[in-house]
């Protein structure tokens, strides 16, 4: 046995007992284990071992770990996170940041204090010189906590940075708070970065910031972001984020996002489409908590590797990070397997870090349910799994692990907070990157410029290249760089130092010509990384000849496509910034409310939505290719530009199914209802007025109204349902009666179907001109369209729209605004059914008339019923009647098309060619199956589960949970088949603690919501009836004749 893996048995026994008494009730199907027992379920790569250093009850629900300059560990404890399946009371201020010390040097933390208590789900911690900065949920404010009497408890709290309120789902709020090599402090989900200088905090816009949970940087300052929601464990790492999100084809090697868990609990947000037939996760869906290993206690080939936590898959990925001629690539260090993987369902690694001792640390939240409540709603696939395995019962625990190698020699505990700036300087060349970065930060915070001469000598002559690099950046942080020092740095023997020097020189490049000769040399440097940094810096530093320099750099490096791609992306990013700023400035002058909302929405979109929809709103290709995109384009989308009632529902409750006959890789847009009305309105306004889109403002009150109207909706919408809220134009214009106080003789030309004729005001625009529409019957008006294309400057300079039931009493205005192009689309907030509309022109033009060439009204007819989901509609009918209807009117051939199509994907589980899987072979005749039971099985899969597909959970004596279909059982053993159609697992009866039948079918409910109409349901049932009656021959015939 590896001695490094041995831990005090007595200590662990106490921990195990504590684990059993922490909660009154725990899952019987996924029971929590002691740290020792949990580690025993892990597969760890040879030579490495996992060692517990801190666990419950000393910590609960840990999510972040950092250390201060004296090596004291600070742990973020999210004690209110998902304490029940609905996530109630999560914002109760009872979470904390605790401090822990290893007083005897054995590697186990034995002294514990509550450093900061009564917090609202803290999420970021940054130790400074004599204080610790903490960021909480639902605010962008950052507070400074000081322990003035050194008892381990903060007793002085001050506002360090005022950022204001921050709403939204807690999974989509800032994380990180990382002091990078460039002396800027970065987070995810914000449109700025921070810097502590001259005793105050300053911010700088960061237009293309991104990320979700977790943030890290490498030795030269490249940031590595991740987006669990976008299923991308690493992005925007090619170049520093200040140059925009830059990515290169092949930066993740083929198959990088595929994961290889060893557990089989399918609690995956994406449902069956994200699990293999053996219930293991197929790809990253919760990747985050990443860190670049920068320590010195692992083998040398570990240095610079990217560590990614995947709590849904219960695994840790070790990724190799390689520079291939200017392209950073990521690959799995262990093909077909993982660095660490566990069978324990409660192993939930959510963060990682390099420690002061040079080792790798892992934060295990150790709990049952990991997804936030927004993704575990009633009726969701995930909720059923959580309930089946009772995952919501396992709460209030947590562990910090250290990963050792058999060659590991842990480094000493630092005492940097007790050292002077002069003493700290020697750590800038330390082999452990944690020491280098901590020393740089503390020297800058001290602000002692008396050490500058020695720092300069170090920057020029230190033996270690990274020591010279950190010395340069430390001088930059003290605002003491000079052109002479940078010129020497640009000639350094190490490419990393040369690249740092040209980047630090950016503020000088616009005016100091002394760098021009050096720029020419760097532009043809032997290191592609230096060439790329030079290209970026001359542009970002606004060198007067930036375009010419860029051109000759590209010519000099024309054999390297990475240089050209990065240059093109940077230019595109810069052009987008300039164009957007110009647009916002123009919009501010005419509609400040919309402009301000769009600015806020831009930040939300860039940090949450770009991963799937793309920075340009055109959608990102799916990782596995195949012509699929992750999400549909938003640029030009009728759902985006159409009525807010439709877009609002999509944002609130989500969207499922094909869009315009295209299937997207994810197939489901998750609901955003947990965010505030203002948050949703802001992101809606941004997408409705970007990339060529243009639409009226959506206000928080609009979202609130839509939220109330759709409160009873369960599950995501389909496009068919949503058509109701963005109806076509009325076709009864010949029955309309139009009246006006101007040019009455030409009113009929508004609705004559001839766009070359027009009604006009017969005078230049001035307030008070109006026209009314009397409809033949009441409708709910949604959108009024004034087409003035043939007189494209005659749009209304302002308008007010009122409605009435009788033409006498007019309601308060249902729309106010102004036109700015040839077609004015006016979204209406009508209170209900009306017959009369009045449009009054309120603006003024000294040149143009008010004209209307064609007038149309999009409205919901009086007899139209609000949408009801297909599942709800069919549930109102008796199964017998549905079966009879299918036999009478259904078409089996059309049903086969549905069965084998990508939308519902029935064949994935039921096609005999795939073998027995999650459901029975439907071509096998079963006497108990009737036409009615087929209907029941589709509409309510869990009502009666076939005995051969009644899954069971087998809980073994060592706490493992195995799920599958029973095959056979005798006194000695139980055999179950994983839902893979063949793989059988034999379990000795002596190893079994319990066998629990699962009451929920593996087939999700609500699949029928994707059907267009009841006739498709009849077609599908008719197909199933014929296959059941005719057997395999009929099934093959229908399949092959599609």
From TrEMBL:
Signal peptide residues on this chain, from the entry's feature table: 1-23
InterPro entries: ARM-like, ARM-type_fold, Cyt_c-like_dom, Cyt_c-like_dom_sf, DUF7133, FA58C, Galactose-bd-like_sf, Haem-bd_dom_put
Swiss-Prot/TrEMBL keywords: Heme, Iron, Metal-binding, Signal
Domain F5/8 type C: 717-860
Signal in keyword set: yes
Cytochrome c domain ranges (all copies): 596-691, 890-1003
Name the UniProt record assigns to this protein: Putative heme-binding domain-containing protein
Natural source organism: Aporhodopirellula rubra
Taxonomic path: Bacteria, Pseudomonadati, Planctomycetota, Planctomycetia, Pirellulales
